[in-house]
């Protein structure tokens, strides 16, 4: 009998029926077309809300408003047949809305706010030295499921399903808490990227004004997982204790998700190959060999009641955390395995520099037809990428309820309504309120200063 | 800045010898000293730059900096030492203010120099320097300290230091201490970092760096508007010569072996590419694909080696089209290649990556770029070196350097093992590796008479 046969847990019951799985997000070319998109931009896309957001209160009447602000923001359109049009800018909500309706971009990306209007950058180029340079940008994060291919066995590449989606839930929970509690940010928008991941926009004034070096430092603080195809151990936790951020992340989020969800749903210890992958993370070869031996041996009877993944994990923990293993490297090993299989994997380059583009929320993903809807970080465990409204569903909903004509708020009648209401109440309104307060107080401070200088 | 738990008393220590270089000294300087002092300081900065790219640890850097300083910045006349420091710094500001790249290099080296000199100062003069910077931070009050005491202790232990109840902490916006944040060496709460007294060097350095950065931009303005013209006969030639002599070639324009052609490229890859490039090259041939970081690192290297734009397009297309098809290649990838050659976008002629840049890169999942000596696991590195013909004894030497984080020395040893020739200058740029290798190989084909 080969080892493989011993190790594979027989699943006599089919988990899913055969054929394509409806609970998976896959490419659906039928659900997307330029004609559909035109109607979406005309009736549903919350253009005015996006404009309000990116104006950060500068579109008001307050004397401290910077009216050039929104006009210095780069928008980039991807048109049909992958034609990129970069460095678009708009001076008011109408210009923006008209351009989107007219050009009907398959994708809208948002770039930084530059020192000068990006559409006129060539005119400034002659003036010499670096006049055209990014000056403000949200702190952004991009997490992509395809970066987790070595720790998920349900799907790979661009596909995601409900078995691997918890990896994104973990990422949102870990990062959202750190951004709020550690870094003190308040205005954070999480959005589904439309296919295989999530985007995060940190919009506090303080976040928008970070230098590239400061952005890198935050990304590094949040980074534990070090990839690289030629480096087998991707997580190294050193030091006698973990930093409070990592310790809290481990006990509050990672451990629970690993032991209660992923271990079984991904069957992380169900075959020899998978076992080997985890055993490779144990630096002591004799212990790894001992575990393998146990798992191959005839001890099935003792563990038959339990799920094999859980039983093996318990054995591994027992051996590694028993009093005998005083060596520090080994005590940390259980944590390192959990971090390797669960900790968020960031696309570092996106976060480190101001001038990275990121897809706007409420765009429609051309491959899946799904809308990039906001995700509520407080209830991110309930988010289901397979039920996110698609373009064709939304248009059908519009058709179904033709009777009532209220052209202003047609989205109210569709399943997008919930997302737009959430965007406004949980993100946009609190953001604009604090923009206003910030503007007020900096204006008063300036006023005070000029009064003081007059009285001298 | 207030210090709560310790009374300042001016002892025999005297004022710190470290200057913040707030304003240029009003001294008479002899023209020879102007140049000589600057060259001495450049030796220090160049030594620091080498130390950084070899991945030296903080303790090693501290030793290196104090040695470099002692060796180059002494003066037979003790009273001249401070003047020499001031003069050389301000001369080099003139030299290095003139382009973005020069400013970046100078800023980074001067900041590193300042950092280690600050660490060598006594605690008393460190406090005086902090006061001189007028940092607006207060020491943590006892009441506030109590509420975060446990967390501060946990951070201290996580970086292998014992927590000490006597330590003074400063509560500062996290933006002020990026390096402490990046390495998780501070406790963060609601946007504030809790910086221990022995970490204040980070705070001071951030301040130093930002002051100097602003000053350099101003100096540049003055230089272009007045000084260059006024000093046309006297200082300008010295200043211009100084900046060229020490940065080394940047390999943006292939010089020595003007052109390489596509038919030779496999031969050249196995004979003269450094391991980092050879690995990328082989992966590209194998997978017909490389991710962005790899395309940049290899693409710019090939440009520096002398691959013309048309050949580069043909080369990448030949590989990528097997994976993604010709059409997608033309649409998605051709642009960046032309961009790298300065034919698209802002039309900058991009320079090939230096070892420093490659060593400090952060390859992610699926990436093959980076420095093999730094980013490969020991096992993978041994296999890769064995494959290119490094014998077992040389291999042990290489691994030894790797373990001590001397990545460029490891690369130099590899070079020597493969070419059976010495390389006294050391490798500091992948294109340097290539040109040294070609020199040796060509001299063997045509022995000099």
UniProtKB/TrEMBL annotation, chain A:
Protein name: DNA primase
Top EC class of this enzyme: transferase
Molecular function GO terms recorded: DNA-directed RNA polymerase activity; metal ion binding
Family assignment from sequence similarity: Belongs to the eukaryotic-type primase small subunit family.
Pfam families the record matches: DNA_primase_S (PF01896)
Entry GO terms, CC: alpha DNA polymerase:primase complex
Annotated EC: 2.7.7.-
Cofactor section: Mg(2+); Mn(2+)
GO biological process: DNA replication, synthesis of primer
Lineage, opening ranks: Eukaryota, Viridiplantae, Streptophyta, Embryophyta, Tracheophyta
Highest taxon, organism lineage: Eukaryota
SUPFAM superfamilies hit by this protein: Prim-pol domain
Gene encoding the protein: LOC105051384
Entry keyword set: DNA replication, DNA-directed RNA polymerase, Metal-binding, Nucleotidyltransferase, Primosome, Transcription, Transferase, Zinc
Automatic annotation (TrEMBL), chain B:
Taxonomic path: Eukaryota, Viridiplantae, Streptophyta, Embryophyta, Tracheophyta
Protein's name according to its UniProt entry: Probable DNA primase large subunit isoform X2
Domain DNA primase large subunit C-terminal: 266-434
Alphabetical list of InterPro entries matching this protein: DNA_primase_C, DNA_primase_lsu_euk, DNA_primase_lsu_euk/arc
Biological processes per GO annotation: DNA replication initiation; DNA replication, synthesis of primer
Sites where the protein binds [4Fe-4S] cluster: 276, 355, 371, 411
Cofactor(s) for this UniProt protein: [4Fe-4S] cluster
UniProt keywords, alphabetically: 4Fe-4S, DNA replication, DNA-binding, Iron, Iron-sulfur, Metal-binding, Primosome
Stated family: Belongs to the eukaryotic-type primase large subunit family.
Cellular component terms (Gene Ontology): alpha DNA polymerase:primase complex
Organism encoding this protein: Elaeis guineensis var. tenera
Signal sequence region: none
Matches recorded under Pfam families: DNA_primase_lrg (PF04104), DNA_primase_lrg_N (PF26466)
């Amino acid at each position: 009998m080969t080892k493989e046969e011993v190790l594979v847990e027989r699943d006599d019951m089919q988990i899913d029926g055969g054929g394509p799985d409806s609970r998976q997000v896959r490419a659906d070319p039928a659900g997307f077309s330029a004609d559909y998109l035109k109607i979406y931009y005309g009736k549903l896309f919350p253009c005015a809300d996006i404009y309000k957001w990116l104006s950060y209160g500068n579109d008001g009447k307050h004397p401290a408003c910077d009216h050039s602000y929104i006009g210095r923001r780069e928008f980039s359109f991807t048109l049909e047949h992958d034609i990129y049009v970069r460095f678009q800018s708009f001076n008011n909500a109408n210009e923006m809305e008209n351009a989107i309706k007219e050009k009907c971009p398959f994708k809208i990306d948002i770039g930084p706010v530059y020192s000068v209007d990006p559409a006129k950058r060539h005119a400034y180029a002659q003036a010499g030295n670096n006049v055209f340079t990014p000056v403000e940008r949200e702190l952004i994060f991009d997490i992509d499921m395809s970066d987790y291919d070595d720790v998920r066995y349900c799907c790979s590449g661009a596909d995601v399903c409900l078995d691997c989606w918890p990896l994104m839930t973990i990422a949102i929970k870990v990062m959202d808490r750190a951004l709020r509690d550690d870094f003190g940010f308040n205005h954070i928008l999480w959005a589904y990227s439309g296919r295989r991941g999530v985007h995060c926009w940190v919009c506090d004034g303080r976040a928008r004004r970070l230098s590239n070096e400061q952005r890198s430092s935050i990304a590094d603080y949040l980074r534990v997982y070090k990839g690289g195809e030629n480096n087998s151990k991707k997580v190294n936790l050193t030091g006698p204790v973990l930093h409070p951020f990592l310790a809290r992340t481990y006990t509050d989020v990672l451990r629970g998700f690993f032991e209660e969800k992923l271990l079984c749903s991904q069957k992380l210890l169900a075959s020899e190959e998978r076992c080997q992958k985890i055993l490779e993370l144990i630096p002591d070869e004799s212990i790894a060999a001992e575990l393998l031996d146990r798992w191959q041996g005839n001890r099935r009877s003792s563990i038959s009641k339990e799920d094999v993944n859980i039983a093996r994990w318990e054995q591994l923990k027992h051996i590694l955390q028993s009093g005998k293993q005083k060596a520090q490297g080994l005590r940390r090993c259980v944590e390192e395995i959990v971090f390797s299989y669960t900790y968020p994997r960031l696309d570092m380059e996106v976060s480190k520099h101001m001038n990275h583009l990121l897809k706007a929320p409420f765009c429609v993903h051309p491959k899946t037809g799904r809308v990039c809807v906001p995700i509520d970080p407080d209830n991110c465990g309930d988010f289901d990428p397979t039920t996110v409204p698609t373009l064709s569903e939304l248009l059908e909903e519009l058709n179904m309820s033709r009777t009532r004509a209220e052209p202003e708020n047609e989205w109210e009648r569709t399943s997008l309504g919930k997302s737009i209401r959430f965007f406004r109440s949980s993100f946009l309104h609190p953001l604009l309120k604090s923009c206003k307060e910030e503007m007020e107080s900096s204006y008063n401070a300036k006023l005070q200063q000029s009064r003081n200088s007059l009285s001298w | 800045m207030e210090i709560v738990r310790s009374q300042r008393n001016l002892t025999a220590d005297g004022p710190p010898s470290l200057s913040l270089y707030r304003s240029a000294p009003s001294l008479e300087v002899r023209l020879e000293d102007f140049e000589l002092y600057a060259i001495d300081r450049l030796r220090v900065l160049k030594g620091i730059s080498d130390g950084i790219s070899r991945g030296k640890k903080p303790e090693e850097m501290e030793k290196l900096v104090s040695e470099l300083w002692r060796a180059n910045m002494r003066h037979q006349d003790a009273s001249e030492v401070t003047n020499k420091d001031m003069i050389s710094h301000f001369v080099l500001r003139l030299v290095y203010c003139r382009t973005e790249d020069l400013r970046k290099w100078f800023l980074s080296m001067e900041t590193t120099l300042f950092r280690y000199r600050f660490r060598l100062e006594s605690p008393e003069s460190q406090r005086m320097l902090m006061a001189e910077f007028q940092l607006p931070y207060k020491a943590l009050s006892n009441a506030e300290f109590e509420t975060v005491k446990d967390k501060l202790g946990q951070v201290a232990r996580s970086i292998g230091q014992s927590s000490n109840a006597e330590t003074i902490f400063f509560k500062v916006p996290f933006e002020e201490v990026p390096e402490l944040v990046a390495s998780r060496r501070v406790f963060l709460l609601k946007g504030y970092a809790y910086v221990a007294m022995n970490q204040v060097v980070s705070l001071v350095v951030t301040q130093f760096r930002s002051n100097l950065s602003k000053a350099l931009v101003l100096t540049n303005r003055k230089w272009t508007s007045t000084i260059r013209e006024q000093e046309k006969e006297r200082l300008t030639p010295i200043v211009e010569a100084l900046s060229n002599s020490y940065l080394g070639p940047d390999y943006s324009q292939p010089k020595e072996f003007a052109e390489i052609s596509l038919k030779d490229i496999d031969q050249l890859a196995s004979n003269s590419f450094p391991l980092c490039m050879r690995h990328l090259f082989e992966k590209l041939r194998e997978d017909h694909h490389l991710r962005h970081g790899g395309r940049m690192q290899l693409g710019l290297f090939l440009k520096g080696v002398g691959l013309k734009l048309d050949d580069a397009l043909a080369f990448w297309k030949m590989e990528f089209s097997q994976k993604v098809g010709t059409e997608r290649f033309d649409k998605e990838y051709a642009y960046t290649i032309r961009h790298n050659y300065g034919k698209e976008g802002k039309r900058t002629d991009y320079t090939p990556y230096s070892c420093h840049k490659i060593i400090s890169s952060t390859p992610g999942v699926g990436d093959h770029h980076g420095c093999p000596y730094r980013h490969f696991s020991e096992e993978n590195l041994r296999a890769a070196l064995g494959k290119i013909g490094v014998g077992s004894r040389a291999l042990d030497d290489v691994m030894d350097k790797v373990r001590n984080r001397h990545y460029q020395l490891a690369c130099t040893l590899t070079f020597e093992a493969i070419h059976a020739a010495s390389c006294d200058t050391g490798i500091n740029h992948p294109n340097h590796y290539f040109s040294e290798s070609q020199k040796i190989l060509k001299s063997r084909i045509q022995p000099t008479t």
